[in-house]
Design brief:
The structure holds 3 protein chains of 3 kinds. In chain A, about 80% of the residues lie in helices and about 0% in strands. Chain A is an all-alpha fold. Classes of the chains: A mainly alpha, B alpha/beta, C mainly alpha.
Chain lengths: ~240, ~280, ~220
């Protein structure tokens, strides 16, 4: 068996090993779970190291000043490790503060435009007169839902006045209809991801066609051993 | 009469493994015996394709693979179709990844498409380039927006400095980008691109995303920050039909139908058994 | 050393780094300041890569004792550690040794181990969502009924068979997506944006210290 073919066999095994969990938790599913965590962490580290090397070669090794800054950044990066030390925990806060500070600064300068101003402007710009009645109706519904949902999530005001009750009720109903969309698309995603795995198992191009050959045999072995073991245990009792 | 409620009770407490088995069967079945149902095309898919069709010759398009391997089932067909569409246009394509897994998928897609070979015949470094993964999420997006050369100084395949490639001579910052294509599974994704690339540089953007994300992208679509969207596998099938290249999306259409229909049947059955049991009480 | 321990130090660092990004964005301070601002962002990316150390160490802290003390499932922990180091080593950026991201073995393992595992683990939710919908997605109240009806319409809208049997379902599904869904998400986005702004300002003023907690 060539290495490539063995690779496809591994892929089929790991795919089916995950799904044996549907029957019950078992050694195959545990192997899949632990190998995944280990491989994913190692993969992440490899990618970061690669990026760091590219940064050094491509950007930071050009001048002495940049080289010093790069080494300083690496030293600060090592301080993350002190997350696990009670005594030196304060050192961990330094890279955290740098990362959080830059991130907050970057987000803060544009969040107000992207998420607040642009969205308020888009809502306020909706026309309700001088256009066809259906669009006018939709625009009106959009505006009412936006305002009512915002009001529903306003916790800084005591919602005691009589008008809050219908507003909140309407917002709740609108949200439920809206969340139906999220629900429908969640179902789509979940099914699609599994369909993707089935396409792999059936070797549908561009997936390797050899997977189709391994699929029934691996499935048989995994299921057979699990069912056989359970049957053996049951009869032993 | 006493047996009726017992049936509903039994139906309500059915072994979950029976449901799992049924789902396996209804998804496997159409791949063995295809039905070939037609797929109607939605407006967002048309807008997504139009955004690419309308690109002037020589435009620089940045395609960002912002997803985890978990989203492969939905985004792989979208990624393949999008890059195929782009490679058939006279535009310059710069491929990046903001998620580390994205680099894997980009590599896989490029291996499948082979842009250097017919029918594309696009030259690496001149017509397209793969710069790999930029860690840091939103911070990396901001850094790329300011300066591509410093944030991703070498390419993915040959580890050569980007300044040595002709395609990169005209790309220093987001100001030089005509269209951003984000293929995404979550955060960082559309929100962050809008914040870091649309707000400061007004870079037009289209999004191919997993279905779960679609509702959160809707306000950007309505507001015009996002020009087109392909939400999930159904949209992938629609897009494949628009560009005339049937692939994994169209191949999945039947399985999408059977799985969704079985899902609806289960919901209806669950509700009937719930109301029947409640009535008998 | 006692000065470094004070919580005011990281708060000050946070504020300085946030202001470096905020002030030159709104006030034109010239290309030199903008270049520095850009460099700080890229420098921060290098600092933040160390965060992976936290993940790596945390995994080792859990799994190494499991192996050394032969606790339940220690064999699996050994497998985890082995794969973690294997992927790291074969992915080391030394192409001259056939290691690295484009190396044969790194590609082999991500194609045949990581990709099937990752994709399958997420895809398993298809089964749970179906089972959960059957058991729990019931019209127990008016709100639940609205969610149920709207959700079912969208499920049918996303199935080619649904739009084939009832063509109007496409328009109805699109209406739900474009109007109530968009409006609700827009309101949530505005609320979230305001919340993020307030949080940012609280961090800038040094009131928000939650992220610095721990270690006591």
């Amino acid at each position: 068996m060539s290495v490539e073919l063995f690779g496809v066999l591994l892929g089929v095994f790991f795919t089916l090993a995950v799904y044996t969990f549907l029957y019950r938790e078992n050694p195959y599913s545990r192997i899949a779970e632990y190998v995944f965590i280990g491989a994913a962490t190692g993969y992440g580290i490899a990618y970061d190291l690669d990026w760091l090397k590219n940064q050094w070669v491509g950007t930071w090794s050009k001048t002495m000043e940049d080289s010093i800054l790069f080494v300083l950044a690496l030293l600060l990066a090592v301080l993350w490790y002190f997350r696990f030390s009670k005594r030196y925990f304060f050192l961990y806060r330094i890279p955290l503060a740098i990362t959080v500070g830059t991130y907050i600064g970057l987000a803060l300068r544009s969040v107000v435009f992207a998420q607040v101003i642009e969205q308020v402007r888009s809502t306020a710009a909706l026309k309700v007169v001088g256009i066809d009645p259906w669009t006018a109706f939709n625009n009106l519904v959009t505006m009412i839902i936006v305002v009512c949902t915002l009001a529903y999530f306003t916790f800084t005001v005591r919602q005691e006045a009589a008008f809050w009750k219908p507003v909140n009720k309407f917002a709740r109903y609108a949200m439920m209809i809206g969340f139906g969309s999220a629900y429908g698309y969640t179902v789509l995603t979940r099914m699609s991801l599994f369909i993707g795995r089935v396409q792999f198992l059936l070797g549908i191009p561009p997936n390797p066609p050899e997977a189709k050959m391994f699929f029934p045999w691996v499935a048989l072995v995994l299921l057979g051993t699990l069912l056989g073991y359970d049957y053996y245990k049951k009869t032993k009792k | 009469m006493a047996t009726a409620p017992r049936i509903w009770e039994k139906l309500e407490t059915i072994d979950a493994r029976i449901i799992y088995l049924i789902l396996w069967i209804v998804i496997l079945w159409p791949f063995i015996y295809p039905i070939g149902l037609p797929v109607s095309i939605g407006s967002y898919s048309l807008a997504y394709a139009k955004a690419i069709d309308d690109l002037p010759a020589g435009s620089i398009v940045v395609v960002s693979f912002d997803f985890s391997l978990g989203g492969l089932g939905e985004l792989y067909p979208i990624a393949i179709a999008t890059l195929h569409h782009l490679f058939t246009k006279p535009v310059k394509i710069v491929i990046i990844a903001i998620w580390s897994d994205g680099a894997i998928v980009a590599d896989m897609v490029l291996k499948d498409l082979k842009p250097d070979q017919p029918p594309y015949n696009r030259k690496y470094g001149e017509d397209w380039i793969f710069l790999g993964y930029a860690p840091g999420g939103e911070t990396a997006m901001a850094a790329l927006g300011k300066d591509f050369w410093s944030t991703l100084p070498t390419d993915y395949y040959y580890k050569k400095h980007v300044s040595t490639y002709p395609i990169m001579q005209n790309l220093r910052s987001a100001n030089d980008v005509t269209l951003l294509v984000s293929l995404e599974t979550g955060t960082p994704g559309a929100d962050e691109w809008v914040r870091q690339w649309y707000v400061p540089y007004k870079v037009p953007m289209i999004v191919g995303c997993i279905g779960v994300m679609a509702p959160t992208v809707a306000p950007y679509l309505a507001g015009g920050q996002v020009k087109g969207m392909l939400p999930g596998l159904r949209a992938a099938a629609e897009y494949e039909l628009i560009i005339g290249r049937k692939g994994l999306g169209v191949a999945s259409a039947d399985a999408l139908s059977t799985s969704h229909m079985v899902f609806v049947i289960f919901v209806i059955l669950g509700n009937i058994s719930y109301f029947m049991r409640r009535r008998s009480k | 050393m006692s000065l470094l321990r004070r919580v005011e130090i990281p708060i000050a660092i946070t504020i300085i780094f946030a202001l470096i990004q905020v002030i030159p964005y709104f006030v034109n301070m010239g290309p030199a300041v903008e270049a520095t601002q850009d460099k700080v962002v890229r420098w921060t990316l290098i600092v933040s890569t160390g965060a992976l150390l936290v993940g790596l160490t945390s995994l080792l802290l859990i799994h190494v004792p499991r192996v050394t003390r032969r606790r339940t499932h220690w064999e699996y922990s050994l497998l985890l550690i082995a794969f973690m180091f294997l992927m790291t080593i074969i992915g080391l950026p030394f192409p001259e040794l056939n290691l690295g991201l484009t190396g044969y073995w790194f590609r082999f393992f991500y194609n045949n181990v990581l990709t099937p595992l990752s994709a399958s683990l997420y895809a398993i939710l298809a089964f749970y969502i179906t089972s959960a919908a059957y058991r729990a997605f019931k019209a127990r109240s008016l709100e639940a009924a609205l969610l149920l009806i709207s959700g079912t319409i969208l499920v049918l809208r996303n199935a080619p068979l649904g739009t084939f049997l009832i063509p109007q379902i496409a328009d109805l599904g699109d209406w739900i997506f474009n109007i109530p869904n968009m409006a609700v998400n827009r309101a949530i986005m505005i609320g979230g944006g305001l919340g993020a702004m307030v949080l940012g300002i609280r961090v800038l003023l040094g009131y928000e210290r939650g992220y610095l907690r721990g270690g006591e």
